[in-house]
Structures
1.
Amino acid sequence: MNVDGGNLDAMVRAAGARLKWSALLAGLCRWLALSLGLWFGLFVMDNLLSLPAGLRLPLALGGAAICAVQLFRLVLRPAWRPQTPERTAVMLERRYGIADNLLINALQFQRQSLRPEEQVFAGQTIARSGEIADRVQFNELWDWRALRVWGGATALGLVFWLAFIALYPRQFTAAVGRYALPLGDTPPPGRVVLKLTPDGDVTVPEGGQLDVALEVGSPGHPLPANPPVLVWRERTGFIEPVPGAGENLAMTPGDNKFVHTFANLEASFAFRVFAGDTFTRSIQVTVRPRPQLKNAQFRVSPPAYTGLKPQVAPGPPAPVSALPGSLLEISFQTEPPVEAATWNAGGEVVALENHGGVWRGTTTMTNAGGYDLSARSRAGAEPVTLAHGDLRLLADNPPEVDFVTDDRNRVVQFGETLALEVVARDDYGLADVAVVSRPVDKDDAGTVVKRWTYLGPPGNPGPVRETLSLTVDPRVFESGATYYLEALADDFRPGGAPARSRPIVLRVKSAQDITLPDGDPLAAAFAELKLVIAAQEKAARLTANLQSYLAELKNERALADQTGAIGTEQNNAISLGRQAVVLFDAQDEGKPFSAPLSTLVYTDMMGVQTDLRDLPAAANSERPGRVTGIVSHQEQILSQLLSLLGRIAAVRADQLKPVAAGKEDPQPPATAEERQKELLEGVQNFVADQERILEKSRTLADKGPEDLTQSPSDILGELAREEDKWAKFLEEKLTDFSKLPSQDFADASLAQELNSVYQEVQPAADALTQKNVELAVPKEQSGLENAQELVNNLERWLPDTADHTKWNMEEPTAPTDIALAELPKELEDIVGDLLDQEDAMTPDVEDVTSSWMDSLDKGAGWGANDGPISDMSAKGVTGNQLPNQDEIGGRSGEGRTGRSHGQMVSDTAEGKGGRETPTRLDPEPFEQGSVKDSAKDDQGGATGGGKVSGFAGEGLRGPTAPGSSQKMPRLAEQQAKIRQQAEALALQLRRYHLSSGPLETSVNAMNRLEQTARNNDGLGVRRAFNLAVSALGEAKQTLTEQVTVRREQDKLPPWMREEIRIGVRDGIPKGYEEMAGEYFRALAEGDTK
Amino acid sequence: MKFFALIAGLTLLLGGGTATAQERAGTIEFSDGRLVAGNISLTPGGTLKIEAGPAMRVLPLDAVREIRLTPETETMERAWRFKEAGQTAKEYFGDPYPVRHLAVTVTLGDGETVHGHLYTTVLYVTLDDTVQKVILPAKQRGQAGETLKMLVYPARISFGAGAAGSPAVAGLKLSGLAANSEVVAITRGALVRLAAKAAGGPGDFELPSPPGDGCFLAAKSGATIQVGWPKSADEKTATLVRRAMPNSEDFFDDRRILGAYLDTTNAEIYSLVLAVRQGKTTLDEARSQPWRLELYRWKLDDDGRVMLAGQNYFFRGIGGKGEAPPAVVLSEKLWYLQRDGGVWKTRDE
């Protein structure tokens, strides 16, 4: 039987659903409450404590595990577990205390087919269950208590969370990130808000820069007092969040933010910024390496005219030097490969082509300057500079050409033949060499006398020697005129001007100036020949006139008159010629000359006469041609007559010697004896003048007061002067240092001076009256030799006049890289007696300091003269002139003492005299090596750099002399001597009841000065010196006034005056003559200074 | 004078405690492979002087990223002497010795490379308590019997990161100048002459190097030169310069002081001088009289004396005898320059 239990089953199902939902809701609330509470606690803890990653990880994992377990236990498992009626029945039986499993049995009974005997029991059971089911209140099946408790807790948790998110969103976000990725680089939230740019990892090209900006916000709080600190480290991808993880940099405040720029990046690095109580994430900066050049090379093809083969040189970034017009081929590879490459030189951009990974390009060298090699790594990328270098243009120097002769001033006569030798050379090859003549008074190109042309290009680099036999032809040279003979040389430079040699001045004697020696038997014939020439010249001039006015002489008669006049003169020439022929024939020596003269007279001149006679009868159209022929014929006759005259003179006279003076200098050259005599007279006059001056000075001295009054004043003058001299030791005139040229003494050479020659020079007499000359040289006329090697060794001559030239050069506009040529191991030197007196070295002759510097080789000869150019080739000689007061640098052996700041390469200093030079501290380095110093008469002060004298040592570039401390005691000793004299003088003054106060003040100051000098107290020296000199001046003034008063009262016996005078004289330092002279002069003129 | 020496001494004394040389961490690699690492510095106050083409570059160490020295020429020489004075024949003796000339390539912080000849420079390498001196030579010479290989030189000096990225050029924006004006700047202190190039737009110029602590500016247009100079005349300073001028004799015999400016910070005076050669020159041409518009820098002693410390020129020309030099106008506009990034502008820009 079936028991109707439908209501029971429905009740159980309905109850089961409620029970399940109740459990689910309660579990969910509980899980939520637990989870919200747990994470809230973790978030707060991290916010407060900035938990490290090592702690955050287990906490995050633990929190997540707890939540997961609880979720499973409280929510998922109940949800997943099916709520079967049996389960519901059991739950109801438990809840309502139903015994005997009544409900579950009733449910089982309802689902089974029962036997009849069982149906009774089942029916009862079902019935009872139905009764019980009727008692079940569904509302009671919800677990209200659990739901209220956990629901409340969940709500409370949500409230906290919402409040947390609303109030502390940054902290919430940061905590989420920090727990979500506990090992990630999420900075903890702080009081300040940091916004970093860039905010992620970046990649920059090598050499590029990275701008870092940090905006610091501080909501509700004042900004931190300290600027943000950027912590960075190279070659790492991550910076630990501690300030000590790398180098610290304080960021620079900018506009509302802090900035820092990483410039010129070479290696990858990472950084993060710390500000206030927080920091940013670590930023990884990856530096992408720039392409590197490989196998870079230049191939330089010089211009074709040089004939040079192409040369291969190291490629970029090396500098490349080539002649203008050279073809420059650039080739290189890059690692890694690039997309495009360009060559940029002087604004000309050449796109290079890729040939199988090798970039190639070609350009023509036209200008010097810099070049850039740029490349793009990929299309659209910014170009990067792969290399930067210099293009240098080599100079194709003009040829050098000159005559090989010492005689450049010649007087010649017609018919004379000159043998001239020309030597020429060129660095790349000569094209041609020519000799031209041109009158000195005409500024034209001249007439080419001879030209030698060479094959090429490339031409003959030489040196080539060509010989020219030049006959002085009247058709080329004018009688009595002066010509320049110049040799010109051309090379194959495009547009290059020919080089020009030094000229030879050729003075052509006129017929009148050509004479025979006195007593020559041909003198009469020679004189007659001159008359022939004069007559022929006159006839030629008339013919020239006729030629000029021929067009106006239409009338045959008028023309006949003119030709008749010419014929008369030509006839005169013929008559004179005949006589000359007779006279030459009369002498045996003249016969060789009569034959050519006879030909001229009887053939040529007569021919001209015939032409002249026929001219009027000629047709008008033929006349000009005939006149031209007559003119030409007459010129030819005249030329041959002049040649004959010169030839006769040359044969009959001794060979003419070239002389410096020509027709304009009627004075015959002075003989050696006469010249010596003149010099002697000049020197004697000079000596006499000096004696007169000295005598005059002595007279002035005699006019002075008595000895007593002289001596104290005198000694004061000496002292003041000595003080003044001594002061120069501490004085430095830095003015000229502003022009010191830069010089490098990397090569600390030491050379012996073996070939030292003393050259005695007789001073020129006119040196005494030589005018001072200023040579002001603009930049346009300054040039440098810059010899890389010393090849030439020109002979030197010392000048025979004192320095009367003031060199004054305009400063160079740019410094020059001067070569450091290898110096000889043994230097040559020439020394002579000084021609100059120091007191004669007025400002009119002192050269002006310049910063020109050169390396001279050929340019250092011939004469040994002064000048303002410093020289690095140690080619100068000591000479016989006093050094100027200008600054001179460069390298040299020992020379005269003077202002210099260069390098002494001589290994010995023996003292060659010179000028007193004040103490100087120049900027040159102290060098290796030492100079053996045996000089005894050093007068100047200490100097700056250079080699140390006396002991070996190695110094450095710097202004302080290592031996400066030795100088002060020396000065102290000098000062002590002066002080002792001053003390003795003060005692004398006391004895004679003269005021000695200022002098004694000075003595005290001197005493202090000595002490301070011994203690190397420079400031003390300065103060004491000022006081001593000031007091000395006062003492002198006081004493002079007193002396004037007491002059008439002087009653001292002569022996005492003599004793004082001698006592004062002994031991007085020399060099006070000028001061004493001034004093005497002042007394003699009644002027007390 | 003595006083100068004393002042210099005092300066050294006072400055000794504070003046510090720039130190850069770096490594020196020698030609024999030896390495020296440490903090590298120059002599205090020192710089790297390089003859680079027609100009000399003076570089501070902190602008340098790398220095490479490479042999330019290497030869074996023998000691020699001229056999006889006046004759070119040489006589060689002794064992050969090596001679090496070195070229330098300096890579700056901004990637620019400077190639040329380095004036011999001393580097100090400090590591812990030891200081090692390394000389960067321009030329090396060995002893007789040595080989080139034995002549070791520093081949590469590399510095760590942190080279100052100094831009290679600087912009100038000067409105109101006539077209085709030539603009020249002279830096303060070192008096480096920077000839500006036109850079596209009107009034836009580009200096070949940043002017550092500032510069003096001049613009030439035709026969007129404008020079940036303060308006207020400082007659006292000009008098000091005028008195000192005769001590610095020069090629130019007519030097007119157009302005004197006292830089109190550095105790220096700058004077603007129009220098003209009126006297005869060796130039035998119609135009034989050079002129220069120059800037003189004077050191001012504390006792009021001034000494010439340097000079350079804005513009130079050469005129005929009796021809007037260009007119010089002092411009206050060109005096007040302000920097805007890499561009220097007048106040009106």
Note: Chain B touches chain A through 83 residues (CB under 8 Å).
2.
Amino acid sequence: MNITSAYIQQIDGVDHCIMAVIDGTQCQVPLTGGNRHYREIMDQVEAGTLVMGDTVNIEESN
Amino acid sequence: MAYNFPDSPSNGDTVTINGIVYTYNSTKGAWKTTAGSGGGGGGASVTVSETAPTSPSEGDLWFDPSVLKTFVYYDDGTANQWVQSNPTGSGGGASGGASVTVSETAPTSPSAGDLWWSSSEAVMYIYYTDTDSSQWVSTSVPGADGADGATGSVSVTTADTAPSNPSDGELWWNTDANKLYIYYADTDSSQWVQATTPGAAGANGTDGATPGRNKIINGNFDVWQYGTSFTASGFTADRWHLTNIGTSSTFTQQVFTLGQTDVPDNPANYVRGVVSSVTGAGNTSVLKQKIENVRTFQGQTVTLSFYAKADAVKNIAVDLYQNFGTSGSPSTSVYITPQKFALSTTWTKYTKTFTIPSITGKTLGTDNNDFLQLSFWLDAGSDFNSRTDTLGHQSGTFEFAQVQLESGSSATDFEHKSIGETIQDCKRYYIKDLKIGGGGYATGSGQTARAMTSCTFPVEMRASPTVNVTIGQSGSISSVQANSLTSHSCQFGGTSSASGSIWYKASATLDAEL
């Protein structure tokens, strides 16, 4: 699984999801361990093969 | 009293003697009794005993094994007595015994008292000389409907309780159990014994009829939401994951020739893997499916069955393993002894049983993602020897159809599901091209969660899915995201790129695979 450009997206300051490009496709990954993409991202981050980008916060109330 | 048969009879002529109707058969040249005629006092009895039967009826037969002679109980008009039916000559010894012939046609030049067993009719005749003629006459004496005949009858009782005072050989149909019993006397007891004992095959047949027995989803390779040709690791046919490490392989959807009978029940599709092996201890090509929930088949014997063939006689290996999930403190995976299959070059059904260990005492992770995995190893470096029974490296073409994993020690027929059912099963794990859209109003650019649309997924997915949205058409919308995402629903909303009316039409892909 090739994962690039991953970062945490927050909404109103609360972690909402991980936005990542997975095998060339922009994806929205839920923050749940039952999701295989989330686990893979966490595994790669832990292994040092993936570095998370800066968190992006979206103000939904704007 | 001597009975007199007509001289020079014609075929079909009848004569009634002592209530018994004899009909002349010109082909056989013999008088034969008519089945079912007579009636009255019942059939003649045949007794085998060293002493004469008591209270005999005329015509009864008695075979005395001590002298090897047969007697008939005969009324000559003045007295009843047992008369030897095949008297030997007065001189004894070798002379004068009546002959017994077994043939399809009547013996030529018979003597009075000769016996002929007509093998074409299974009827015994005796050559009888009366006052004016000699002829073959059937020795069988019909009984009144056979009920009281020598052959007797067997009582059959239909009831929900066993008959009282049964006789040996009596039959009882138990209406509660829908089973047939026979009353059987052995050397030291008598008892009702089930006449038809259910065998293993029958029991498995019952299991086989159980819907949902096949825990492999899309075992018929009918659903291909991901595409139809794959070379990289990832999902291929729905639920089937290809892992290529080092070795390269291409897996494609294939369509059976219409009307083929090599694989039964007219399946539409199968999968073909073309493997180009690259030597390396960690290299492999393996097709696998994760069955949700490690409780599946735990502590049971299971049977794997599938149709397969290869471009040449080649081994593949199959293994299963139990994974207890992630997060928390899950137990380590349990690998089940692999087994090899020697594929031939023609479609063949392969079957093997595996024992799935109990999970008693194991601990699940907290992510609710435990599973039982089935793997078809086509090429495997030495790192995988323990999981492949040292399969080793090989290239080739491998084809699979009708994969089934079920409880029990024998394979039932492949469980066919409709395409609709299979697609629904697959959508628990992957949904492609879910159409979404919405419209609204924004007061500026960069506003999120606009043109919101609630969406309930067509099935409850295994977990909250990864979402990919592809916008088809839009007005002042730069992107669409899922909000309030769960395993069964979400709300899609757009990010505005300008003020004013905004709208979008898009399709979403949802991935909750294991």
Note: The radius of gyration of chain B is 42 Å.
3.
Amino acid sequence: MIDDLEKLRERLKAMPVPEPRPGFVDRALATASGTGSTHMRGIRATLARPAIWWAAGAGAVMASIAWLVVMGMHGSAPREAAVSLALNESREISLVIDSERVLEGATIRLYVSGGVALEGYEDQHEIEWMASLNQGANLLSLPVVARAPGDGEVVAEIEHDGRTRRVSVAMHVSARPTSTTPVRG
Amino acid sequence: MTWPAGAAGLGPGAPGLGYVCKEMETTPAAEFDLLLRGHVRPLYRYAYRWTGDPDHAEDLVQETLTRLFTELDQLRQIERIRPWATRVMYRLFIDGLRRMRRSPVTYVGRSGSTGAMLEEEHEEIEAPDETWDPAALTEQALQQERIEAAWPRLHELHRVVLSLHEIEGYSLEEVATIVDVPLGTAKSRLNRARQRLRTLLTEGTNSDSGACKSHD
């Protein structure tokens, strides 16, 4: 136990801080003043299924890490901090991977747990593939289906050169199955 | 914004960095670069200590710089840019936390496994100790481990005040201005943060000794 305040300060100051990515200072200043590549410059690629990305990116070389943004989630459940689905309901979750430059051979992983599954991959809790990303925004649509009541989670991860961006979406599946009868207005 | 008298000369003030050569014809981008370049790495360091993740730290600094560029006119008038920029970054950090807590989406950080340390800090760790005492060094290393394990368990607001005051050397008045609270509140927040850290360190010590006992 460190009783002395000075010793505590010393230890706090000695806590390591990892370096930012190479070129971060130049890039950040240029982006802020609009002279560099702009963030979210528009959707360059719309890819509905991981398999397409796998085919596009297999065997390529890694470059730079990207941003990961989940679209349209804030409006869907602003208070409960989870996306609510009825049993058997399907929902598309759109992920935008915004890359500062062309990025070949990034590894993308999806982890699905709890009462939700990815349509077409319902027996798999973990999917991993390599992908080539365009410069700018790359859209990945994940068709999620509610298979059992309770809480669940979809985690998407992109990795390059030992650096990882990870985003998790909390899901909640209610026991009430989704209605198959159209609702009349 | 005014900063407390007597604050000049502290590390965060970085004298001379706010100087802009008036005679030179510069674009806003070049001027912004000149004003802010020396502050980006320190801001990243603060952001890393607040967020605990290098990617989040970079995002936060980027957001801060983008915001600051829109306030270039104000930046030109400011004597000490770093505390001012830190205040902007703190607001963005808090806004981000609030957004995150209302959202089902969580950004989970994971630092690079081979990330190099900032040189100045690396030197501090590696500085040779003239009084070679293996037991003391082991104890120091243990304390360091405990601190690093306790840090992410602190509340974000506690990490902010501890990093600014204890690590970066901002005065309490400056901390109060940055986090936009009365001085008394900053003081009590700092005390609570220290207390909490000590509690976590004690828990760490107890669990260490508990582990030893269970071996016996």
Note: Chain A has three helices and ten strands.
4.
Amino acid sequence: MADFAGAFAASHGPLLVREWDAVPQNEKLRLEKAFKELGRRVTAARPDVLIAISPDHWANFFLDNYPAVCIGVGAINEGPPEPWMKGFPQHEIPGHAEFAFHFLNESLKDGFEPSLSHRLKLDHGTCIPLWRMELAKMPAIVPMLVNSIEPPMPSLARCLEWGKLLRKAIESFPSDLRVGVLATGGLSHSIGEKTMGAIHEDFDRETIRLFSSSEKSLIDYLNGELPSRGNGSEEVRNWLVAHGAAGGRGFELVDYLPVPTVIVGCGFASWR
Amino acid sequence: MLMRDYWLSKLFFDLQQPALAAEFKANRDAVLARYSLSPEVQNAIRENDAPFLAQRTNAYLLRYYFFATGMKDAEFIRKLRGG
């Protein structure tokens, strides 16, 4: 039987790569330390497979067909397509078709209807954390792309339910396997809007606090606040999937810091 | 209701390809001619009218577009705010 190896979260953002040299030294050191500490925890959890939860930043999908949730079932995932991610060390990242199909089938059995893809590009959303965490060994990656980019998006409550379903799928997988969950994105940021560049530290800190509170208070707060906290903040959906998978017991914050140079409230966490 | 100009969005999506972005920089009108864009939208592209374009496409695609044209974020934000 498979084991749940742990749930983790890290922010991402193109400027963590493109503007890295411009990040003030003290913030750079904290970001490096946070990514590496998260990497240490992921390595210590010994996952054979990581379910990487991220939005698709228009790398795979377009308005022709933009799924609410897509599970990558391919044996191979492609590395990041963005030219400025060319330093990412892998052009191809192995997937885990057997677990991915199990997850997909369990989803359908439970009344969830994700889309599927046999070949996904893993854009900066997934690959910046994988890169910066400096994992001792890259696990197989099963991408779970959750739309937090193009409205309308899956409800927050549904994302939490997705996490619970994922946990059930892990525990019902019939082979020995350690499966971890990596949520990427958030916390507050605003992209391509009039408010671009705004970081809402108060929102981020309250969101972090509420992850250790009841599901209802967390969801109610986010539903009330997200419309005015920048479109990038919608990526907290990925954290909700991880929260659901981890059993909703709250997380240990590795670090949080607003980084104006990369225009993201950067959060790093591992669930209890 | 959410408004999306499909072909404007498609142009921005396609410009993520470096080869097309280079062609766009060298001969913008030739690339624009391949997309079914209204005269108003074409003008907005030529004039970098970010607020007009923002009403018709996804915010991330809009940001990618201005990045692809070489505009710095600070200038993009200024334009978004109508400056």
Note: Chain B has a mean pLDDT of 96.
